[in-house]
Amino acid sequence: MNSIPDSLPDVAPAPGSVPEPHPALAAILDYLQHQLPGYPFQQRLDAPFVRELLDDFPDTNILEEIKNLRWYHDNRPLSGAKTARIALRRWVARAARFRYR
Fold first, then answer.
1. Sign of torsion, CA 37 50 89 62?
2. Are 96 and 57 spatial neighbours (Cβ–Cβ below 8 Å)?
3. What is the pLDDT of residue 24?
C-alpha cells in the first residue's frame, strides 16, 4: 500500500516570480490598443486593468464583450464616456450579471 507523503508540494509561485499570463491577455491588450476607437491605451494601466477583469469575470469572454461595446455604439463606443476604463468595466459587469439571470 502506498503511503501518503507528510507534505504536499508547493503550488504557489515562488516570491518574486512572475505569474503565468492569462491566455487572452495579449489579444485583449492588442484590441484595446489598435482596434477600439478613442481608447486611451497605456500599457502600465491596461495590463493590470485587463488582468483584473479576467480575474473578476472568469466566465465572461472579455474580448467579445469589448467588441460588443464597440459595435453597439456604432464604432464610437467611448465618445461620451469620461473615463474609458470605468465604462468598459461597467459594460463587462452588466454582461456578466445578465448572463446569470
1. positive
2. yes
3. 94
Alpha-carbon gap, residue 34 to 99, rounded angstroms: 28
Contact of 49 with 8, CB cutoff 8 Å: no
User: Angle CA(55)–CA(18)–CA(33) in degrees, nearest 5?
Assistant: 60
Is residue 60 within 8 Å of residue 97, measured between CB atoms? Answer: no
Burial of 88 (0-12, 13-18, 19+ CB in 10 A): buried
Q: Which residue has cell 466566465?
A: 59
Q: What is the mean pLDDT of residues 2-15?
A: 54
**Cβ contact 41:31 at 8 Å:** no
Return the biggest CA–CA distance within the chain: 68
pLDDT tens, 29-65? Answer: 999 999 999 899 999 999 999 999 999 999 999 999 9
